[in-house]
Amino acid sequence: MEPSTARPARLSHRIRHLGWLADLAMLPALILLIVVLSAMTDGLLTSSNLINVLSQSAVVAIAAIGATFVILTGGIDLSTGSVIGAGGVAGAWVITSTGSVPGASPRDCSRAP
Fold first, then answer.
1. DSSP string across 97-108
2. How far apart are CA 70 and CA 84, in angstroms?
3. In the list 27, 28, 38, 59, which could disulfide-bond 44, CB 3.0-4.6 Å?
4. Alpha-carbon distances of 29 from 37, 39, 43, 57, rounded to whole Å
5. Of 12 and 72, more confident
6. What is the mean pLDDT of residues 95-104?
7. DSSP 59-100
8. Quick check: 85 pLDDT over 60?
């Protein structure tokens, strides 16, 4: 093997090997942001805040998982956002019209926010 042909092969192998690094380029920025903000505020890394963040993102995560399976199986369906929006509007309309949350027990509704 000639040295001139071996060098480009090694270089392309290094580029392919570091390809995953481009996918994670924002990870150091996210870690830096978490560290700086947790140093500036008292409540960022508390258990109640982490539970709140996870519960707020649960609907989006469930919709994303469902959309991923639909796209992977070949049936491209991009109407997930509109269905979630329509469901939110319908739920808000029911709550404002009836003054109660369907399916909630009276004990759940009596708690103060």
1. HHSS-TT--HHH
2. 16
3. 38
4. 12, 15, 20, 21
5. 72
6. 80
7. HHHHHHHHHHHHHHTT-----HHHHHHHHHHHHHHHHHHHSS
8. yes
